[in-house]
């Protein structure tokens, strides 16, 4: 779907980094126009919607005209015969109008929801394909507002504003024509008042959008404060600062109160305005219409029809402004969504696969810098050769580039120079999905999803082609010392994560480790995976891991000497490059910088000895 | 595995199921609403007055149209006398103006009451959450605290913003119009009002079905949002584990469920709106036929017929709106219920009725035969006796679940003991106001939360009146001044997103500076250094010596390097003290748990 949308003109001149979450893209009709492909499957529905709406206008105009005939019949001409047939005609037209409304809405509800759902599906698919370099700059909340608020605003445009923009203009023109034909001086008055009303209601709506945004922002600010106070409640309590944060919250709430009152006042004016228009219209029509009737220029039935028709114009005219403002909002939303569709992944998949992977991992003269900070290299001229089945620990101070190094292996990021190879094949030549099957990572910050424990564990296994057997799951749980997962209230079917059972940091890490083990990788990356475990559990995990690592290539980012002991060799990472490689004891004895990182305070050793 | 069983089972599902579908403002929500509105009794009467005037003006207009046609036109026909018409048009104009003024006044005034109530709700709920004990927060979880203050308050906001005005206007219009129709012409009025039962039936059907449809939609959209946010937030794991196809499958499923739920609820409107329109149109046709005959027989005038048409138009419009508000009322009622539930909670550690003074705390902490259990009959501490003299640095060591953190929570009065007493300088903690206690006892945990704001604000958190010199004095003493000065804006650097720019060690130093500046007599550190790497930890150890000088400290230690600065070590197991002595003594003894732990640690180094 995304490939079928044409490129935005001028895109190449934009920031090479792609869209910026904090700067809204330029919006215009072309943004909405580009989304038209989503309407294509619903062409028939659109035709029906427009036809029924047009027919609806016809009926809406016809009814007052029949009423006019009905009133003029018995009263002006003293005829009783036409009452019943005309009345029945009004009845039939009334039923027809209700049916047309029903049919249009029935078709429309299905079509617009399908459009919205399709756009949301494509948006999600595209976002999943976008690389870490994109996601590290966009918070999930910003993306969510595109998937919900912006899509709803586009849905409202396609289902409502687009249709009524057309229909209302048509209705206003047609009805005004009828009014002019009926009694032109009054018709002229009506025609002249329409334009300023449209303009005023559009201006109101725009102001309203501005003030609503302000209220939303301040609500967001207040929510942040509430969130902070909830998360940090223990800090606040232990410093006895409840009153302080409460006062701060109250100040912000008071500000919101003031802004909300601005909004109340504005919308009060707006709604009053909208309600007063028809009454003013009635005043004018009554005055001139009654004079017209009195002088015989108009029949009583025409006057009643005139008032009814004129009142039927009130909504189309005043809503025109709202619809235009809605269209503008939809354009902005469309631009915000296209901005994501136009971003392409800079991680391009290769085509090669390795049939019998041995797991020989090599970093060759690797340079790396994060996109957006190309002048601040994180890794430079890094060389490391890890033999099949070998385990290497990477040790380095905070900020030396350890996590960046591990992110290169599953191609979450690409090197800026040099190459990473597996069994001699450049990662960029490999099929990405295949590569990520070869490599499994247990991250320092274990991500658990609000799903069953089983679903979380089998994240790296395809349920169709390569499902994990129960025995495999049990084994992985054993390795990671994550047996607690079996004792959850519903066993492995228990939902964990944000929306489920709360787990401790250590438990989460062990599940993440079990997940990595369960995907049976050729290369296992452990990014400081054991930091939240207590010494006892850590020892048990390490013992079990040793068995797994025998025939798996491993990279372990480590902070503690105990973790380093898992590895065959240790690589010392300093300022983005590897300065020493060797065995733990060897480095401990010969490299002061290494001792500095892994040995504790020397004064304690003196105190003890 | 199908697309449906990925979600797993959780306790919340059962709670949700038990939630009532139909809600009314009774019980907790009703009491709370009445209480909140009590200060506005007079304002409410004024509002009622205004709204009556407004509706009277509005409803008079079609009647005046009738007068215009029936009594304004004949004089023109007779002798071109425009005066009666001018008088009537003048009255219409007056009514229009009155309506406009009253309408505006009503919207602003009722908006003010609504916003005032909302402010009071926010204020009350926030303060109450602050007053509730950490024990409550442990159970309730921050997620629920947040949603009480966001989505629930928003639901009330929604009701006040849209529902209130609509409901009042709709109700008055219905009653007023019905009365006027009967007044204009009893027979025609009765015929017109025959539509009443149909209207009632359709509206009632819609109200009931939309309540459950709305609830399903809310549930489904929550699924979409959770799955979306988690996929994007955890995109690193998603991509690293090639999760995309399965995620897409799940997302398509929840996305489609949301579509289906929306469709159900849209389709209700699809039936409802034309349904009301149908009833309206049929009524108009019937009124016209019957009215036509009556007019033919001279029983009604053209003006009456015109007024009927105008009134009927007003009659059906609010019916369409009134049902839309119903969902707003539903969720507002549910929200008020939950908020009332929270406000009913009593703080677990109440303020003393007759507080003791503690002018210059020395910092002696004593546990006197303390029992404690989080859950009944599963004691964590039993008969704990412990005296920490003023100025001592005590390290608590032991396995997970030994009761170390419980000791810290009791010493800071996050919890009260089940039996026995915790004393500060000989005064029971339960006799101290929280202001006095918090000035004397401060705890630093490993979460070391940094608030949004500047670094200086964060350090000043415990003592907002501290000058910049005080702040820098603290950071210099802790060796944190250098890295803070090196930041882009120095002390004024904004701590974005929980201190993302700072390393764990630096954040910990800021947290220590915060505690140091607060200058408590007793400082409790709960595994405050466990997340640090060795160089950062070394940095923090240095700082700790400065922080701890001259005050009582209880350090809960995960690592032995922390213990090194302690005067005294206590090893705990199953809620009891098993070893007690200076670190050197315990190590020198060559036996016992501490000595074993120490040896194992030395082994790991070499």
Summarize the topology.
The complex is a heterodimer of chains A (609) and B (606).
Chain A: H1 29-34, H2 43-76, H3 83-129, H4 132-135, H5 140-182, H6 184-231, H7 233-238, H8 242-294, H9 300-341, E1 361-368, E2 379-386, E3 391-396, H10 402-408, E4 417-422, E5 425-426, H11 432-438, E6 439-442, H12 453-457, H13 470-479, H14 505-518, E7 523-527, H15 535-549, E8 553-557, H16 561-564, E9 569-574, E10 577-582, H17 584-590, H18 592-598, H19 602-608
Parallel strand pairs in A: 3-8, 3-9, 6-7, 7-8
Antiparallel strand pairs in A: 1-2, 1-4, 4-5, 9-10
Helix pairs in contact in A: 2-3, 2-5, 2-9, 3-5, 5-6, 5-9, 6-8, 6-9, 8-9, 13-14, 17-18
Chain B: H1 11-18, H2 27-37, H3 41-79, H4 83-131, H5 134-140, H6 142-184, H7 186-193, H8 195-233, H9 235-240, H10 244-296, H11 302-344, E1 365-372, E2 381-388, E3 393-398, H12 404-411, E4 419-424, E5 427-428, H13 434-440, E6 441-445, H14 455-459, H15 468-478, H16 481-485, H17 504-518, E7 522-526, H18 534-548, E8 552-556, H19 560-563, E9 568-573, E10 576-581, H20 583-588, H21 593-605
Parallel strand pairs in B: 3-8, 3-9, 6-7, 7-8
Antiparallel strand pairs in B: 1-2, 1-4, 4-5, 9-10
């Amino acid at each position: 779907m995304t490939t079928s949308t044409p490129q935005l003109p001028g895109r190449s001149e934009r920031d090479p980094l792609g869209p910026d979450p904090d700067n809204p893209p330029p919006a215009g009709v072309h943004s909405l126009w580009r989304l038209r492909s989503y309407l294509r499957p619903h062409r028939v529905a659109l035709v029906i919607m427009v036809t029924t709406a047009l027919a609806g206008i016809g009926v809406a105009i016809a009814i007052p005209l029949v009423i006019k005939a009905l009133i003029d019949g018995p009263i002006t001409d003293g005829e009783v015969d036409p009452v019943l047939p005309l009345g029945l005609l009004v009845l039939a037209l009334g039923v027809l109008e209700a049916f047309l409304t029903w049919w249009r809405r029935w078709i429309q509800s299905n079509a617009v929801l399908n459009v919205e759902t399709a756009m949301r599906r494509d948006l999600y698919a595209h976002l999943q394909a976008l690389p870490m370099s994109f996601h590290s700059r966009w918070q999930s909340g910003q993306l969510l507002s595109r998937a919900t608020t912006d899509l709803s605003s586009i849905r409202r445009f396609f289902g409502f504003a687009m249709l009524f923009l057309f229909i209302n203009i048509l209705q206003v023109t047609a009805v005004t024509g009828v009014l002019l034909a009926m009694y032109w001086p009054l018709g002229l008055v009506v025609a002249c008042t329409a334009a300023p009303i449209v303009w005023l209601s559009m201006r109101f709506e725009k102001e309203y959008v501005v003030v609503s945004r302000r209220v939303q922002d301040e609500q967001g600010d207040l929510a942040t404060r509430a969130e902070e106070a909830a998360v940090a409640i223990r800090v606040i309590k232990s410093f006895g600062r409840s009153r302080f944060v409460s006062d701060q919250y109250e100040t912000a709430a008071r500000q919101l109160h003031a802004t909300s009152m601005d909004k109340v006042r504005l919308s009060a004016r707006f709604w009053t305005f909208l309600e007063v228009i028809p009454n003013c219209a009635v005043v004018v029509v009554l005055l001139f219409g009654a004079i017209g009737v009195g002088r015989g220029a108009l029949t009583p039935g025409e006057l009643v029809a005139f008032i009814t028709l004129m009142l039927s114009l009130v909504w189309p005219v005043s809503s025109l402004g709202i619809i235009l403002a809605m269209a503008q909002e939809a354009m902005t939303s469309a631009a915000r969504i296209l901005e994501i569709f136009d971003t392409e992944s800079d991680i391009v998949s290769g085509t090669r696969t390795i049939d019998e992977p041995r797991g020989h991992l090599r970093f060759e003269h690797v340079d790396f810098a994060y996109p957006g900070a190309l002048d601040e290299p994180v890794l430079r001229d890094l060389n490391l050769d890890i033999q099949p089945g070998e385990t290497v620990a990477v040790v380095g101070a905070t900020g030396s580039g350890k996590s960046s190094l591990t992110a290169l292996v599953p191609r979450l990021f690409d090197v800026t120079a040099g190459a990473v190879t597996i069994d001699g094949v450049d990662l960029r030549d490999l099929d990405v999905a295949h590569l990520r099957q070869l490599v499994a990572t247990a991250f320092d910050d274990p991500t658990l999803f609000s799903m069953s424990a089983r679903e979380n564990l089998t994240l790296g296994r395809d349920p169709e082609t390569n499902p994990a057997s129960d025995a495999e799951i049990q084994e992985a749980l054993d390795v990671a010392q994550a047996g607690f997962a079996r004792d959850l209230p519903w066993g492995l079917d228990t939902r964990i994560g944000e929306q489920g059972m709360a787990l401790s940091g250590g438990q989460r890490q062990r599940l993440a480790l079990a997940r990595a083990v369960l995907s049976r990788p050729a290369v296992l990356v452990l990014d400081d995976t054991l930091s939240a475990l207590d010494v006892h559990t850590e020892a048990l995990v390490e013992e079990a891991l040793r068995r797994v690592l025998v025939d798996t290539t491993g990279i372990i980012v480590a902070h503690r000497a105990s973790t380093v002991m898992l590895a065959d060799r240790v690589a010392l990472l300093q300022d983005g490059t590897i300065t020493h490689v060797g065995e733990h004891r060897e480095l401990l004895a010969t490299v002061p910088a290494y001792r500095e990182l892994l040995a504790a305070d020397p004064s304690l050793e003196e105190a003890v000895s | 595995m199908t697309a449906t069983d990925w979600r797993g089972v959780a306790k919340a599902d059962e709670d949700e199921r038990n939630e009532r579908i139909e809600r009314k403002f009774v019980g907790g929500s009703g009491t709370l609403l009445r209480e909140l509105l009590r200060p506005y009794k007079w304002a409410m009467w004024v509002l009622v007055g205004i709204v009556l005037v407004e509706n009277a003006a509005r409803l008079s207009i079609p009647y005046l149209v009738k007068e215009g046609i029936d009594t304004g036109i004949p004089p023109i026909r007779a002798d071109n006398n425009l005066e009666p018409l001018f008088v009537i048009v003048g009255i219409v104009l007056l009514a229009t103006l009155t309506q406009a003024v009253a309408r505006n006044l009503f919207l602003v005034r009722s908006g003010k009451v609504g916003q005032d109530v909302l402010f009071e709700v926010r204020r009350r709920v926030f303060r109450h959450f602050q007053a509730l004990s950490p024990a409550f927060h442990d159970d309730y979880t921050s997620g629920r605290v947040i949603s009480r203050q966001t989505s629930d308050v928003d639901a009330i906001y929604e009701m006040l913003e849209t529902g209130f005005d609509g409901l009042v206007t709709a109700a008055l219009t219905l009653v007023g119009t019905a009365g006027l129709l009967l007044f204009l012409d009893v027979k025609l009025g009765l015929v017109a009002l025959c539509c009443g039962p149909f209207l009632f039936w359709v509206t009632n059907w819609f109200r009931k079905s939309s309540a459950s449809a709305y609830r399903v939609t809310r549930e489904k959209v929550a699924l979409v949002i959770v799955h979306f946010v988690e996929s994007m937030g955890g995109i690193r794991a998603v991509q690293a584990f090639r999760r995309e196809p399965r995620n897409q499958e799940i997302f398509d499923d929840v996305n489609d469920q949301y579509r289906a739920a929306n469709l159900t609820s849209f389709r209700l409107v699809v039936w409802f709106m034309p349904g009301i329109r149908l009833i309206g149109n049929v009524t108009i046709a019937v009124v016209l036929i019957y009215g036509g005959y009556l007019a033919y027989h001279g029983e009604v005038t053209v003006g009456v017929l015109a007024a009927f048409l105008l009134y009927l138009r007003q009659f059906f419009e609010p019916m369409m709106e009134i049902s839309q508000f119903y969902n707003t009322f539903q969720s507002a009622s549910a929200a008020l219920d939950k908020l009332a539930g929270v406000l009913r909670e009593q703080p677990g550690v109440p303020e003393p009725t007759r507080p003791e003074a503690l002018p210059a705390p020395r910092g002696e902490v004593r546990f006197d035969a303390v029992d404690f259990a989080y859950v009944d009959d599963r004691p964590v501490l039993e008969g704990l006796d412990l005296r920490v003299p003023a100025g001592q640095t005590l390290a608590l060591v032991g396995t997970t679940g030994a009761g170390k953190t419980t000791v810290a929570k009791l010493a800071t009065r996050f919890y009260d003991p089940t039996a026995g007493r915790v004393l500060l300088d000989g005064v029971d903690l339960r006799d101290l106001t929280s202001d006095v206690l918090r000035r004397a006892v401060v705890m630093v945990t490993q979460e070391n939360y940094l608030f949004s704001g500047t670094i200086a604000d964060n350090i000043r958190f415990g003592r907002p009146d501290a000058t910049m010199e005080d702040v820098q004095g603290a950071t210099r003493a802790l060796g944190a001044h250098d890295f803070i000065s090196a930041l882009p804006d120095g002390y004024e650097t904004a701590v974005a997103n929980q201190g993302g720019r700072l390393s764990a060690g630096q954040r910990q130093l800021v947290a220590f500076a915060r505690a140091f500046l607060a200058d408590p007599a007793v400082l409790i550190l709960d595994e405050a250094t466990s997340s640090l790497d060795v160089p950062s930890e070394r940095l923090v150890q240095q700082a700790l010596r400065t922080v701890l000088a001259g005050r009582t400290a209880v350090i809960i230690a995960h690592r032995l390097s922390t213990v090194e600065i302690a005067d005294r070590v206590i090893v705990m197991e199953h809620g009891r003290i098993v070893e007690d002595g200076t670190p050197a003594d315990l190590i020198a003894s060559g036996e016992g748990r501490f000595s074993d732990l120490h040896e194992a640690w030395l082994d790991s180094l070499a």
